[in-house]
Design a protein that fits this description.
The protein is α+β, with helices and mostly antiparallel strands. The chain contains five helices and 18 strands. It has an eight-stranded mixed sheet with strand order 3-4-5-2-6-9-8-7. Strands 12-13-14-11-15-18-17-16 form an eight-stranded mixed sheet, covered by helices on one side. The chain is globular and about 45 Å long. The protein starts with a strand and ends in a 9-residue tail after the last strand.
C-alpha cells in the first residue's frame, strides 16, 4: 500500500480518461476495481478509502466528431511546467495543450513526443494527484510503447530529466526510466509484430488475480485485448479495453506462472 500526499518531480501522479458516455465508463471501472465514485468539478473521481485514484470526464466534442477512441492520459508531476514545456518543441515534440490553470488544483499541459505518444504534465497546487498508488485497484506502472526508443529516450530525458537504463527483452529492448534511484516507468521498442499501432503510453492497474480481473472486465462489457500471460519474474498481466475501446493493462505482481489463458 502506498499513500501519497506529494509527488517528486518526474513521478507519474495521475491519469484520466475522456469518454463519450462517462456514466457507462464510470460503472465499468468502478465495478471492475470496486472503487467509490465522487462527482467533482467537471470530473468523476474514482476513489478508494476516500482517496482519489483516477478521473473520468466527457470527451471533447471535436474528439468525438473525429471518431477518436478514448485513451488513458497519464500525468507526470513537474516542479515547473513552463520550464518543461519550453523544452518540448526544440526536442522534436508538440505542445497539444499549452499550460493552463485547472481551477485551484494546479496547472497542466499536454504534449506529444516525437513519435506522437501523448503525455500530460502537472504542476500541483492543491491537488497532488492520486492519493493511493501501487496497491490493488490503483495505478502501479506506466509504459511507453514507441516506434523509436532512441529518439523518445533522449526526448524524455531532456524534457523531464529521467535517467534511463536499457536491457534486452525477448526480441526487442526495454528501457527503465528513473528519478534518482527510483524506477518510475518504462519504455518498450515496438517491433513489426505490433502492426500499424501508433506509439502510445500504457497505464497499468494492479490487481490481485489477473485472470479473474480479465474475466470480470469482459463480463462488464469490456474486452480482453491480450489474454493473461506470464511476465517472469514480475507476475502476470493482461491488456484490456473498456466498453468504448479505451485500452489499459492490469498486472498481478507475484502471481504464479500459469501460461496464457486458452
Amino acid at each position: 500500500m502506498t499513500v501519497v500526499d506529494r509527488y517528486k518531480h518526474g513521478s507519474f501522479c495521475w491519469a484520466e480518461l475522456g469518454s463519450p458516455e462517462p456514466a457507462v465508463t464510470t460503472r465499468f471501472y468502478s465495478g471492475l476495481f470496486d472503487l467509490g465514485i465522487h462527482h467533482g468539478k467537471g470530473y468523476t473521481i474514482l476513489t478508494k478509502r476516500g482517496r482519489d485514484v483516477v478521473a473520468i470526464h466527457r470527451m471533447r466534442a471535436d474528439e468525438e466528431a473525429r471518431g477518436e477512441v478514448p485513451r488513458w492520459m497519464p500525468f507526470v508531476n513537474v516542479d515547473s511546467i513552463d520550464r518543461a514545456v519550453a523544452r518540448v518543441e526544440p526536442r522534436g515534440g508538440q505542445i497539444l495543450v499549452p499550460p493552463r490553470e485547472v481551477y485551484d488544483s494546479g496547472r497542466m499541459s499536454v504534449l506529444a513526443d516525437p513519435s506522437g505518444a501523448r503525455l500530460a504534465l502537472w504542476q500541483a497546487v492543491n491537488h497532488a494527484g492520486a492519493g493511493l498508488i501501487d496497491e490493488p485497484a490503483t495505478m502501479c506502472w506506466w509504459e511507453l510503447n514507441t516506434r523509436d526508443a532512441d529518439e523518445a529516450g533522449v526526448f524524455y530525458s531532456d524534457v523531464i530529466g529521467w535517467r534511463r537504463t536499457e536491457r534486452a527483452v525477448e526480441s526487442t529492448r526495454y528501457t527503465d526510466f528513473f528519478v534518482g534511484e527510483r524506477k518510475v516507468g518504462g519504455m518498450l521498442q515496438m517491433t513489426e509484430a505490433w502492426g500499424s499501432m501508433a506509439s502510445h503510453w500504457m497505464t497499468y492497474f494492479r490487481v490481485e488475480d489477473c485472470d479473474e480481473g480479465a474475466a470480470l472486465a469482459a463480463q462488464l462489457g469490456g474486452a480482453i485485448v491480450v489474454a493473461p500471460s506470464d511476465i517472469p519474474p514480475v507476475g502476470r498481466f493482461a491488456v484490456l479495453s473498456d466498453p468504448h475501446g479505451g485500452i489499459f493493462s492490469i498486472v498481478a505482481y507475484g502471481q504464479a506462472a500459469r501460461g496464457p489463458t486458452p
